[in-house]
Amino acid sequence: MVNKDQVKGVANQAKGAVKEAAGKVTGNKKTEAEGKTEKLAGKVQKGYGDAKEKVKKAL
């Protein structure tokens, strides 16, 4: 089973990776940093979703 937090987390990771790469290519440090932040936020959100699934399965 996959929940919405897992899906949104993966989507945010992908969006962040694209933004980070765009920042690197253009030399825009702000965009690169924003991309890294979005990627990290996506990882956290996916981890939260994973934890919710483990709790569901345990119950």
TrEMBL record:
Residues 29-38 have a biased composition (Basic and acidic residues). Residues 1-38 are annotated as: Disordered. Residues 5-57 form the CsbD-like domain. InterPro entries: CsbD, UPF0337_stress_rsp, YjbJ_sf. Gene3D superfamilies: YjbJ. Belongs to the UPF0337 (CsbD) family. This is CsbD family protein. It comes from Borborobacter arsenicus.
